[in-house]
Amino acid sequence: MEDGMAKSKSPDENRQIILDVVRTLFLEKGYDQTSLTDIISQLGGLTKGVVYHHFPSKGAILDALIGDADENLLSKEWPGNCAIEKIQYALITSLSDVEKLSFLQASQITLKSPSILAQQYELSYSLLIPKFQEVVRQGVTDGSISTDFPEEIAELLVVYFNLIIGLRITELSPDDFLRKILFLKKLFESMKAPIISDKILALASDLSTKIGGQINETTH
C-alpha cells in the first residue's frame, strides 16, 4: 500500500518529499554523515531510482536546498515604505535564515565544490542581481537612494553578500565577518545608499557570535 501511495504522487511531489526528508537529515546528522541509505529509509517507499531521477548526487540535493532558500526570498513581496526598506527587509530575512546558515555550517567543506559555487554564481546573476537592480532603481525614483550607479550597487550588494560573505560565512572569524558588514555600510553610505541599517548591524553582530560558537564546537 505504501509503495502504491508513493508511486501515485507526481514528480514534483516526489521531489519535495525527498527535499523535506534530506533537509531534516542534513540538519540532524550533517551532510557528510548522511548516507543515501539514510535518505531512502525515510522516504516512505520511494526508491533509489526515484531519488536519482531528480538528483544525480547528494551534492545536487544540497544545491537544491540552498537554491530553494534564495528563490523563496525572491518569490515574496518585499515590504517597505520605500526601496531602501525593501532591500533592508531582504537582507534581514537572509541573515535570519537559520536553516540556510545551518546547511552552510553542516557542509562547509562541500561548499568548496565547483558545482555549488557555479550554482550560486548563476543564481546571483540570473535572479538575485536583476531583482536588486529593480528595487535600487525604485530607490532612485522614490528618493531613498541617490546614485548614478543603481546597477553596480545591486551587483556589489549581491556578490558581496551571497558569494564573498555567504559561501564563506563559516570560515570567517566573528571580527572578519563584522568588519566586512561595516565595510559595506561605509561604502554604501559614501555612495548615498544607506542600505546597512543599525538593525542589520545588530543582527550581524548576533550572527557573528553564533558563527564563532559553531566554529569552536567543530574544532574541539
UniProtKB/TrEMBL annotation:
Domain of life from the UniProt record: Bacteria
Residue ranges the UniProt entry marks as DNA-binding: 36-55
Record-linked InterPro entries: Homeodomain-like_sf, HTH-type_TetR-like_transc_reg, HTH_TetR
GO biological process: one example: regulation of DNA-templated transcription
GO MF terms, alphabetically ordered: DNA binding
UniProt keywords, alphabetically: DNA-binding
Pfam families to which the protein is assigned, alphabetical: TetR_N
All copies of domain HTH tetR-type, residue ranges: 12-73
SUPFAM superfamilies: Homeodomain-like (SSF46689)
Name listed for the protein in its UniProt record: TetR family transcriptional regulator
